[in-house]
Amino acid sequence: MFSFCLKLGVSMNTVANNILLIAGDSADAPRIQEALAESGSEPFKVEWVRQLTDGLARLSKGGVEAILLELLPADIHSIETFDKLLLAAHGVPILVLAGEGDENIARQAIERGANDYLLKGRFDSYSLQRSLHNMIERRRGEEALFIEKERAQVTLNSIGDAVLSTDISGNVSYLNVVAESMTGWSCQEALGRPLDEVFRIIDGVTREIATNPLDLAVKENRTVCLAPNCILVRRDGFEAAIENSASPIHDRKGRVTGAVIIFHDVSAKRETATEMSHLAHYDYLTDLPNRMLLKDRLTQAISSARRNGNRIGVLFLDLDQFKHINDSLGHAVGDQVLQSVAKRLTACVRRSDTVSRQGGDEFVVLLPELEHVEDAGLSAKKVLNALSEPHRIAEHDLHVSVSIGVSIYPDDGQNAETLIQHADTAMYQAKANGRDNYQFFKKEMNIRAIERQSLEGSLRRALERAEFVLHYQPKINLETGAITGAEALLRWQHPDRGLLTPSHFVPIAEDCGLIVPIGQWVLREACKQSRAWLDAGLRPTPVSVNVSALEFRDKHFLENVCAILKETRLEPRFLELEMTESVLMARVECTACMLGALKVIGVRLTVDDFGTGYSSLSYLNRFPLDALKLDRSFVHEITSPRANNAAIVRAVITMGKSLRQRVIAEGVETREELAFLRDQHCDEGQGYYFSRPVAGDEFAKLLEADEPLTIVNR
Ligand code: C2E
Ligand code: MG
Ligand code: MG
Question: Which of 21, 93, 204, 635 has its CA 20 to 30 A from that of 286?
Fold first, then answer.
């Protein structure tokens, strides 16, 4: 084998086209070499081999741009030889040189894959060179295209998105790897099939077949996004949420020739979004719609009610005394009660109604399709009923009643906020009416609610502004008429409304917890006053202080009593604490402990408003009580023949004596009442008949006078 560069003086950086010439020893070979010697800008470097085997060996080394194959004249093996060469050429173009009489064989070679042929006697340098150049250029072009295609293929397969293309009639023409796995179709299988068969999409909400974006992309010649909530159904039925777009494909002249759909799996993203939206709209504890979702639904219900002219009901629920459950049994039990309540509420309303949790122990039920206003009342009754059975939680049977306020659209408000607020106001009225009932909103309630709000605001500032005062009402020994003690009664010198008695503000202070610091102030003030009377040389007079439930249950209560007694240097026997039956009977075990501790200190203990609660007599016996204060409702009309009051008063006095507890009659207003009580040997009395509650210095005057109080200060 020998080779030579045919163009002499070719500069070193000019790349020559390597031509492999396979020709026998005929004179044609030198002629060819000569014909290629004078080439233009791209010279030819001819390597001439005589045998096919040498040619194949040379080809395997690479670097050959084109092959010139001389077909031997009328050789029966010529085509066989050609086939062998074609196989080894791997796309290197072949130009066949045939004798004048062998044109047929040359044509056969073309049919089998040769690129061109020339007849030996008929070619010249120009046509040979042009033929070779064309072949080489074409090959290079094809190679470049192939490389580009390969690169595109690799790129399409390495992106995370699925790519699917179709021809103009909507038949699949390509799927990348991701598209293959997401559709379940291999590219091979999908080729030529209608798009709808390979790319099955449905609407995630309606489950109906989704419109394929491709038609629109082709028709309108623009990029079109897939419908939201689009779900791709894989060949095996597996579903995945997808997102993205379809665009038309153009040819060089800008004509649409097909379309490409690019999509990706957004299941995880959609799931997270769904979860996030659930968290934002549902209560974590009960999984009920929260305040925000309720407001949305109520607003929607209002706009549809406005169109259809129907009514909407809003029930605002607050559990009664839920705080006691939380305080006594702990938050875990409290949480379970809320969950159990949520379940019962959901079970007792219609599917179209919304039960939501506002927070804490507050729930709201939305009744969006009310035919009659009374239906809201019926729903409220159902709720009361559903909650009347005890909840069995952690081996406790817990009774949880509920107070419900009802507001109606459009009567009680035009928007969600007002309706909820008015139902809330009505709920307070239900609480005030003794709990475990429902109340429809009335306009007057609103005024009360506003008043209440403003009162709460100024109540918060009353302590620091020193607006509270104590008045004292004497307790009288009914035998002697002597003053036995003073009950401290709180008054609020309100900057705008004048002197307010406790009924105007103590319930509010109890609700918002302010009663604890206020109670502490009362205790200190009362002890100071008693000390001052002693220091002034007046007769030692025990002072009574009213203690409400929240104060009594406060964990610092005992500590505070001790600290205040110490600070005011008052002997404990000069302090008497008054608690109502309901305070004492809630959580009797704790009550017994606390009373025991107070007794050890030496403080005196009295049951206030006796007869109005539901005291268990066995507990009354167990508690270390000093006195029973008979409620004034029994003392009132004691002498009227119509009432049973006389019998009750008699019974209480007898019971007090047998329990060795003093009995004090409250609200003595008349001479007759006094006479009756004295007849029954009631120990003490208190009331307007003896004296109204008076300021501390006036009380001092009563003590100074030191005379039996009969008709003074009436
Ligand atoms: P209470 O402890 O039963 O106090 C007796 C109430 O009856 C007082 O009302 C007193 O003014 C009133 N009263 C006395 N004699 C008569 C009478 O002959 N006829 C009539 N109709 N009423 C009479 P007040 O001062 O309005 O207090 C009402 C309630 O407020 C008290 O009832 C007590 O439960 C509560 N309270 C008063 N001061 C305090 C306090 O410092 N702390 C707490 N937590 N509650 C207090
Ligand atoms: Mg009292
Ligand atoms: Mg009382």
Answer: 204
